UniProtKB/TrEMBL annotation:
Residues 300-377 form the ACT domain. One of its GO terms (cellular component) is cytoplasm. This is Bifunctional chorismate mutase/prephenate dehydratase. It comes from the Bacteria.
């Protein structure tokens, strides 16, 4: 029987040949890339790759090896594509991304919309970003805000997309897909919930608590200590505060901010009732123009994938091979296609970076319906 050293020597010899063949193959792929730049051909040829995988699988013995060589060749061809995308980008074949670079946002002359009513967290986020004197109005739903932006009755909307304890605002992801609006900035608002009621209300008098569903979720521990209170979800925390004031019934209370309580003349009965002390909500600033700030450092995209094994894995490799740091991924069901998903990915970068252009080139060819949703930074700071 051969010793381990002898076997390793054999492997080294095989690997030397494989490395040499890999180098030769990539050199040919480089030429294929140059040909494709000139001929204006697409890099990704799904049928050719399918045929190639079937062909190499037919040349090895046993199911295990057939599966293995297919996986190996999927990777080899994926490297080949990435090399070719680089050539295309170097040759300027990416074209200009249809986003216009700007140096600052005109916050002073902006007309801004938020969802909810006076005292909503959305208003606080808007004031944090645009200042207290901003020219603004409010609408009832997130959809109304997206419509106001799309039709141009507002220049910007400030809308919540994620809470640090309750997670994503799913509806916002669906609306970003549905509307031709783009993210130009984000701002993070610390969210501190209170239990507020009519002045002089005692906790023992309370029977019903109103708030937005997410806020009720974020204060579950406190509310569980008062399990006899009925929890009723309304469209917004500020609307909950308004209702408590209007109904003038001490059996009712609201989970809302100190700001909303003050605006609607309520008394803070218990402060800081969040389950998590560090509770923040990330708001996006949305507009109907394809613009990005010069030094924007984060990109959001969306795409759909076929219902096939390995499709997400293959797509995400574009981030790895271009050294891009992916910071978030969300998925939402694609309407009318059961068990198919639309993915929303955030990653670090600027639309002018070569690595970003490379990745987008690959993603555009290999995923369905790729859309760039925006290139921005926290607080729009540059
Ligand atoms: O044959 C091509 O068109 C190539 O670009 C080469 C290659 C490969 O590496 O084999 C790479 C990408 C294509 O999707 C198909 C095959």
């Amino acid at each position: 029987m051969a010793t381990l050293e002898e076997l390793r020597n054999q492997l080294d010899e095989i690997d030397n040949r494989m490395a040499e063949l890999y180098q030769m193959r990539m050199d040919v792929c480089q030429q294929v890339g140059e040909y494709k730049v000139k001929a204006g051909r697409k890099v990704y040829d799904r049928q050719r790759e399918k045929d190639k995988l079937a062909d190499v699988a037919s040349k090895v013995q046993g199911e295990f090896n057939k599966k293995g060589i297919k996986e190996l060749y999927s990777q080899v061809m994926s490297m080949s594509r990435k090399l070719q995308y680089q050539r295309l980008v170097e040759a300027g074949a990416l074209g200009r991304l249809p986003f216009i670079q700007i140096h600052s946002l005109d916050k002073e002359n902006a007309r801004v919309v938020f969802q909810g009513t006076e005292g909503a967290y959305g208003q606080a986020a808007m004031n944090q970003f645009f200042g207290e004197d901003v020219n603004c109005f409010h609408v009832r739903t997130f959809r109304d805000a997206m419509e106001a932006i799309e039709e141009g009755s507002a220049d910007f909307a400030v809308l919540p997309i994620e809470n640090s304890s309750a997670g994503p605002v799913n509806e916002m992801y669906d609306l970003l897909d549905e509307f031709e609006n783009y993210i130009v900035a984000e701002t993070i608002l610390p969210v501190v919930h209170t239990l507020s009621g009519l002045p002089g209300t005692r906790l023992s008098e309370i029977k019903r608590v109103y708030s937005k569903a997410e806020a009720l979720m974020q204060t579950t521990r406190f509310l569980d200590d008062h399990s006899d209170w009925q929890r009723i979800s309304v469209v917004n925390t500020a609307i909950a505060a308004k209702k408590v004031l209007e109904d003038q019934d001490k059996a009712q209370a609201a989970v809302c901010s100190t700001y909303a309580a003050k605006i609607h003349g309520l008394e803070v009965l218990v402060d800081e009732i969040n389950d998590e002390a560090d509770n923040s909500t990330r708001f996006i600033v949305v507009t109907n123009q394809k613009i990005f700030l010069k030094d924007a450092s984060k990109i959001s995209i969306e795409f759909e994938l076929p219902h096939e094994s390995g499709s997400l894995y293959n797509i995400l490799s574009h981030f790895i091979y271009n050294d891009l740091n992916m910071t978030k991924i969300e998925s939402r069901p694609v309407e009318g296609k059961q068990w198919e998903y639309r993915f929303f990915v955030d990653f670090d970068g600027n639309l002018e970076d070569a690595a970003v252009k490379n990745a987008i080139r690959g993603l555009r060819e290999e995923a369905r319906n790729l859309r760039i949703l925006g290139n921005y930074s926290i607080d729009g700071q540059i």
